[in-house]
Write a structure and sequence with these properties.
about 325 residues, alpha/beta, Rossmann fold, eight-stranded mixed sheet, about 25% strand, globular
Length: about 325
């Protein structure tokens, strides 16, 4: 993957570059602290993202989507690789050095119920980051927050209310407003609509699209709902067991999925036409443990096209045209 990225035309328009990112969690240690067993949550993931774009990250539960997002934000310390944000290598920056950059990188958590402090009012929740990071003068904080609430579809009289007084959709709007309160450039959306009703999901997705247009935001949108990802994304990355198995533009990925895992995922998308019969691809077996991943291609234990080569060699992550990257031996003949 390193060769792929080195050959790319790196310009200032790439707001985020992830190079061979790896994140491992220790499972067992010796008495001296040496790690003897680890769980590989993210393994050798690379991609670039331009300012104003949306990257959709899809995959089964437990494939490392959320860990990838949190590692990019340095909420988890990476175990290897590079994270370059807006031209600055932030991989090894200290907390004090990250303070200024924190304003430019924010996250919207999956659960709007547990991610808001229950004893703070909406005004307090939104005013604190504005005051801490000196976004506006102290005398203008309340007006700034009220204007932000209006942009996010929140009434001004919500300012003095507490999170428990709101529905799930309203709480998620508060979470979105909190993330945008410090004027970020990049927002990691960690399944922001999965806990909401379908009708509310549409409202939140439309709000995110409008805010992106108005504020020139860049999103990394993590989701397992392919229909939502298709609507909001410009690029799509497909993850399996911690690795990026396919990456490309939305049009290329949906029109021509090349990896067997991507094909299986897309075959499961519900169709609105009851008379249309889908060729559903049923994967056999269970997902291997990330604490003991299989040798060679990680997908070979469930792949209907697996060969002996797949069981022994890790496939090369290669560009098959128009920035459509795939890691599969079947395409490398």
């Amino acid at each position: 993957m390193a060769e792929v990225l080195n050959n790319e035309n790196k310009t200032s328009e790439n707001i985020l570059e992830v190079r061979n990112l790896r994140k491992c969690f220790p499972l067992k240690k010796t008495m001296t602290g040496k790690v003897t067993q680890e769980l590989v949550a993210v393994d050798d993931v690379s991609f670039t993202l331009k300012a104003g774009e949306t990257l959709g990250i899809v995959g089964e539960s437990g494939c490392g989507k959320t860990t990838l997002g949190r590692t990019i934000l340095k909420l988890h310390k990476s175990s290897g690789g590079k994270i370059i944000f807006d031209g600055v290598d932030i991989t090894d920056l200290k907390p004090k050095q990250m303070r200024e950059i924190r304003k430019q990188m924010q996250i919207i958590f999956q659960d709007p119920y547990s991610s808001l402090p229950p004893r703070s009012t909406v005004g307090g929740i939104l005013s604190e980051p504005v005051a801490v990071h000196n976004i506006v003068p102290k005398s203008e904080v309340k007006d700034y927050v009220l204007d932000l609430m209006e942009k996010c579809g929140l009434r001004d009289y919500y300012y003095e209310r507490y999170p428990h007084e709101f529905s799930g959709g309203q709480r998620q709007r508060i979470c979105i407003a909190r993330a945008l309160s410090v004027k970020p450039k990049l927002v990691i959306c960690d399944e922001p609509v999965s806990a909401l009703d379908v009708s509310i999901q549409a409202q939140i997705i439309n709000l995110l699209k409008q805010l992106q247009k108005d504020m020139n935001l860049t999103y990394v949108f993590i989701s397992h709902d392919l229909s939502v990802v298709k609507f909001i994304s410009d690029k799509i990355g497909v993850m399996y067991l911690g690795s990026m198995v396919e990456f490309g533009t939305k049009e290329d990925i949906f029109a021509n999925p090349l990896h067997p895992y991507t094909q299986a995922l897309f075959s499961a998308i519900p169709q609105p036409d009851p008379d249309l019969k889908m060729n559903r691809i049923i994967l056999k077996g269970d997902i291997p443990s990330p604490a003991n991943p299989p040798k060679g291609c990680r997908f070979h234990t469930r792949c209907p096209y697996a060969t002996d080569k797949c069981k022994e060699e890790v496939p090369e992550y290669r560009d098959y045209g128009n920035g459509h990257f795939v890691a599969c031996h079947l395409l490398q003949k």
